[in-house]
Amino acid sequence: xxxxxxxxxxxxxxxxxxxxxxxxxxxxxxxxxxxxxxGVMMRSGAGKHTSAGGIIYTGEWSEDKMHGRGTLQHPSxxxxxxxxxxxxxxxxxTYTFPDGSTYKGxxxxxxxxxxxxxxxxxxxxxxxEFHGKAALGLKMQHNI
Length: 144
Prior knowledge:
By secondary structure, the protein is mainly beta. The chain has one helix spanning 4-13; strands at residues 18-23, 29-37, 40-50, 56-62, 65-73, 79-85, 88-96, 102-108, 111-119, 125-131, 139-141. The termini are far apart.
């Protein structure tokens, strides 16, 4: 995202983020806050990135990576709302699958990891300890 005019304006503003609207060569678009590190523009602060393929991330950025709270929408209908670290689902969040089922709980490096609850498309809720694709000892929640 380097642009000499934008870099020069950052030098006069110090390290405060500036708001930009940028279209990447591949057709992606970013609107939001940026800062300069060694003369290079990086997404930092709040912003929205829309990929040419229709993936939309709205949330916090740090050092040009999704980092902090945000929402990631996929064209398939899948949706993640929660915490990010270094461009990955990391921390507490909710992932909604294209069929409407959801997982709400802990994530670690894009994987379901730790306590969580999975609700299938029919509304049945399973709670317990998730470890990526494994989820031994889940309990089904009954509504009495």
